[in-house]
Amino acid sequence: MLIGVEFVDECWNEQLFSNCPVLEILCMVSCTWSDMKNFCISNPALKFLLILNVEEEDGFQNCALKIHAPSLESLTYKGRPAKDYALSSIPKLVEVHIDFFYEEFGAMIDYGAVVLSVADDLLNTLPSYHNLNQLHLTQKVTVGKALIGLLEKTPNLVSLDFEGFVPAFAGEEEDNSDYSGDDGGEDNHYNEDDGWAVGKVATRCSFLEHLKLVSFDKFTGNEREMRWLKLILNNAKALQALDVSFESISHGKSKRLMANISSLPKASASCLLKFF
To answer: Which residues form the FBD domain (predicted)?
Structure first.
């Protein structure tokens, strides 16, 4: 375990790990790479890698991270996003935990300013995760291009867990438990990050084909949550169970939501609905 180490020399860091032929577990906590442009972790025996920085630390913010570990089975990264990433083939990878810290900035924008779009090149070059069968989204979901782009690349997904959604538009937190959208999934209130309508996801994403277990945590019944819940129920033919855990809503609203969800059409006749 390396704690509080300051890396300053790019020349020797790759040799540091490659010269440890029996290294299987590497934990790097509160380390800094402030004066480095590239940092490489290369080891053929490495199985468990943990990189942890608290929110106040820069971590890899100004440094590119390269990982060459063909035996890696578990990867945990918590901290600020690196400047860039380069990961070689990791065929044995089973478990990944990613938690990025970011800062929200508020500022006045002058008239005529240009608004930059989402990095489409990143979405277009996103690799396919054929071995990914469980996905747990621990941050509030915005459900724009990024999420849909990721789900398009998970053709063998079996278990999907949403932990909260960001409301689609201002005022959506109000009681809309009687929401009933049309089957096409069209919506005039908002647009998905200037991206794709949720109603079209079923024709684009093969992740629905093998999906068996889905859970919605911290469910409040906002329109964005209902659209995704309806999409999954309508199209996931292999679905065995869908769990909904309510949070911060009245007992009356939770009862109405349970009745509404239970009445939705299901592609899987054997799907079991559970409410908590």
So the answer is: 205-276
160: left (phi over 0), alpha (psi -120 to 50) or beta: beta
> Tokens representing 69?
């570990």
User: Could you tell me the two tokens for 243?
Assistant: 């769990």
Q: What is the pLDDT of residues 170-218, one digit of tens each?
A: 443 433 333 334 433 334 333 444 344 555 666 667 788 899 999 999 8
Give phi and psi for 15, each to the nearest 5.
Answer: -70, -30
Alpha-carbon distances of 97 from 16, 41, 48, 55, 167, rounded to whole Å:
25, 18, 12, 16, 25
How far is 88 from 68, CA to CA, in rounded Å?
5
For residue 70, what are the contacts with CB-CB under 8 A and spacing of at least 6?
44, 88, 89, 90, 91, 92
Rg from Cα positions in the chain: 22
Global pTM value: 0.65
